[in-house]
Structure formats: structure tokens, C-alpha cells
Amino acid sequence: MAIPLRRGIISARKLIFLKPTFRCSEISYISSSNSNQSNVISETSLFGIHHLESSNQLGLDYLKECRRGFAKGKKSKNSDNGSAAEVVDIGPSLKANTSALMEAAQVALSKELSQLRTNRASTGLVDHLLIETSSGKISLNRVCAVSVLDAQTISISPFYCFAVFAFLLALRLVRELGVANRSLTLMKPVENALRESPLGINPKVDGDRLIVPIPPMTKETMQAMCKVVAKAGEDVKLSIRRARQKAIDTIKQASSSMPKDDLKRLEKEIDEMNKKYSKSTEDMCKAKEKEINSPS
Q1: What is the per-residue pLDDT across 9-41, written as a single tens digit (0 to 9) for each?
Q2: What distance in Å separates the CA atoms of residue 220 and residue 293, rounded to the nearest whole number?
Q3: Residue 158 to residue 173: CA distance in whole angstroms
């Protein structure tokens, strides 16, 4: 501010000094009485106008300098305080991450429910069973073809060893399963895994496949399965609520860098997402309980 004020004072002094000159031109113009005075009048008046224009120019210069000075002061203020923080919209990424967590919880629930026994046969009952050997474990659906013959029967056809030789070699199970005899299949390991499972099934060998009859469920078994479904549903809803709380905590941390209206809107969207996935979880569990309690 010191430089603009000093320039303003100098300009003001010049204005004060030039003002009498303009008045002298007016006086000489009024008091003129001879013919030769017209030249003097024109000269003095022109002289006065010239200095009037000069004074106006100086006044404009003063205003420009003052304006420039204030502009520089504002820029300096910004440079002292630092640039304004940019508002970052965390909404899209936060909603995507929260939705992914809730969706993953539901996918895990769907997989778990498919493995529970009902009064109807399904491939999901045996797909997850592991064939245990001294060298490792293999998932049944990777070495067997599983199909549903009817509402009460499952067919399991183990692959021939020459078809799974490369896979078994990678898992170092060649010696365990004795693939030197290509007529040998995984029949025995698969049969043992089915008998030892908690499903209560008794497979029967039928040529190169296993026939697995699904016995009807007792009332006690149905109730036990429904409890498992309810427990799984509560665990998933708890995971969904944790994902919601994590998102709310992130919103609170961003309260200093986002408008309040945007924060409230984002929090409302997260709550709606929580309600949506919780409702979907309840529907999945109810459908599974109905399937368990329904007759074959």
C-alpha cells in the first residue's frame, strides 16, 4: 500500500499546482478588451485546456495506480495464506468401494447357502467337497462331472486318470493315485470323501460313476439347517453394517473439505445402499428356508 499512496500524493500535488493555470485562462478570457487579445485568449484557453486534459490524465493514472496496488495486495495475501484447498468429490469412489464390500458379502452368502442340504438334489451339495490325499486336497468339481438325475439323485463321474494326468502331475499326486494304470480312476478317493461328508449320504458305485441318493430330511434336520441359514444371514448383515460404518467414518473425515449438503446427500445414499443389501440378504435367507422346508 505504501507505493500507491506515495504515487497518489504526488498526483494530487500536480493537480493542485495546475488548477490556478486553468483559472488564469478563464480570467484572461473574460477580461480581454482588444482585438489582439483573441490570440492571447485562444493561447491561454488552449493552455488551460491542455493542462486540464493533463490533470484528468493524472487523475486516471492515480486511479490506475491505486487499483493496481490493491490488486497486488490481494495477490500477496493469497501467496501468504496459500492457495485455496480444492474440493475433492469422494462420492463416486466411496459408493463404489462400499457397494463392492456389500456385494462380496452377499456372494459369500450365496455360495454358503448353495452348499446346505435341502429335500431336493443339487450339484452345490457336493461341489465343494475335498478329496483328501497324503499329497494334498482337490476340490471334487475339478476332477468329477456332477449332474442331477432327478429330484432325489445325483450322478458323479470321476475323470479317468489320463484325462487329469497333467493336473495331478502339477499337484504332485501322481504317485499317490497310481496313474501308471490308465484304467484306474479317482473312484475310491471320491467315494470316501462323500461317505465322510456331513451330508449323511451313501454313494453307490454304478460302473464308471457314483450314484448318490439324497435321503429325505427329518424335521430336526430341517430346523437345524434353518438355524444355519439364519446365522449365515446375520453374519452377512453384520458385514454390510460394517461396510456402511466404514463409509460413514470416511464421510466424517472429509467434513472439512466438502459442503455440508454434499455430505448429507452422500450419507443418505450410503444408508439407502445399506437398506438395499440388507433387504436382499433377508430375501435370500427366506428363500433358502422355504426350499429347506418344502417337500421334495
Answers
A1: 555 555 444 444 444 444 333 344 444 444 433
A2: 11
A3: 16
Residue showing cell 493524472: 58
Q: What is the pTM of this model?
A: 0.55
Q: With CA atoms as reference, report the closest residue to 147 among 217, 211, 192.
A: 211
Look at 240 and 198; give whichever has higher pLDDT: 240
Cβ-count burial 179-192 (b if 16+ within 10 Å, e if not)? beeeeebbbebbbe
Looking at the structure of the chain, the number of domains it has is 3
> For 9-18, 128-137, 154-163, which range has the lowest pLDDT when averaged over its residues?
9-18
Please report, for the domain that includes residue 172, its CATH number. Answer: 3.30.1360.40
What is the domain range of residue 154?
120-213
β-partners of residue 209 are: 206
Same domain for 204 and 128: yes
The cell 453384520 sits on which residue?
238
For residues 162 and 179, is the Cβ–Cβ distance under 8 A?
Answer: yes
Which grid cell sits at 70?
Answer: 490493491
Rounded to the nearest 5°, which phi and psi values hold at 173? -110, 10
Note whether 31 and 19 are same-domain residues.
Answer: yes
Q: Note whether 111 and 225 are same-domain residues.
A: yes
The rounded distance, in Å, linking the Cα atoms of 21 and 43 is 12
Instruction: Report the side by side order of strands in the sheet with 209-213.
Output: 144-150, 153-158, 209-213, 204-206
Helix (H/G/I), strand (E/B), else coil: 19:
helix
d(CA 24, CA 135): 118
Q: Are residues 292 and 231 in the same domain?
A: yes
95 and 230 share a domain? yes
Give the 3-state secondary structure of residue 149: strand
